[in-house]
């Protein structure tokens, strides 16, 4: 029997201890143990709660509501939504852990005949009221099929309406540190993934300034599983400190209607990407996921103006030049 030892710290406790997660047996086959699923889902719930506390503290006014839901067929989740805070106009920090018979779209996408699946994750989108505070998205997830396949995925990407170069460098340097602590090859690979994934072909521009994105990172050895799980937790734990710092930098900046209108314009690009290209949105809707949780990523307001082009020399024009692939921020 091969074992992976994962170090965890319980909330409100200084005691460190090791929990044994049985990953493989002697024939090198993945064990689909309920203990492993419960451990991973429980840790992701802790990350959800920690992020909510940090966001509420930085906002200073808004509080996240809580709505639990059940999925027909197995599992469910908790949708945590904040609206009309001091800084956050609309923000969602969602957790889910679902299981059951494998939907046909999953079997088709993953080319598998596995009859059951398990998936758990945390998904976040924050739309601030102040146009100078950036939109942000994070997702971390674990997926497992009854045929033995399992993998991790996720990432964080930043979508500022107004691009401050020092903020963009701060964000990407933070993402690079998270990656480098686990594997120095991760950041260049995952940064490139984000540049390509968060791209809007019909606009020939990126959604924002990217970040890191990884998907279907499969573990074939016990040490590899531990490495990917450790990295996925690190991504989740980085979200709060990084984003609250960006909130703090910009939330006090005064703005006028021209900045608000630009924000609404940039939000329209966010909507277009999420509804046309985002794999998670399409997958959730195609597999009868909870609609309100899936569409939590939509901004409260957006605008579309035909053939709108920002005037050269303006802040809006300058920011527009950064919505492209391949910019080196570190």
List the helices and strands and how they pair.
Blueprint: E1 2-9, E2 16-24, H1 34-59, E3 67-70, E4 75-83, E5 88-101, H2 104-109, E6 116-128, E7 135-145, E8 150-159, H3 165-180, H4 186-197, E9 199-200, E10 205-206, E11 211-218, H5 222-250, H6 257-276, H7 279-286, H8 291-294, H9 315-320
Antiparallel strand pairs: 1-2, 3-4, 4-5, 5-6, 6-7, 7-8, 8-11, 9-10
Helix pairs in contact: 1-5, 3-5
Short description:
With 330 residues, the protein is α+β, with helices and mostly antiparallel strands.
How would you characterize this protein structure?
The protein is α+β, with helices and mostly antiparallel strands. It has nine helices and eleven strands. It has one domain (35-320): oxygen-dependent coproporphyrinogen oxidase. Helix 1 (34-59) packs parallel to helix 5 and helix 3 packs antiparallel against helix 5 (222-250). The longest helix is centred in the last third of the chain and has 29 residues, at 222-250.
Name the structural class. alpha+beta
CATH architecture type: 3-Layer(aba) Sandwich
The CATH superfamily is: Coproporphyrinogen III oxidase, aerobic
Largest sheet: 7 strands, antiparallel
Distance separating the two termini: 43 Å
Keywords:
330 residues, alpha+beta, oxygen-dependent coproporphyrinogen oxidase, seven-stranded antiparallel sheet, 27% strand, globular, disordered N terminus
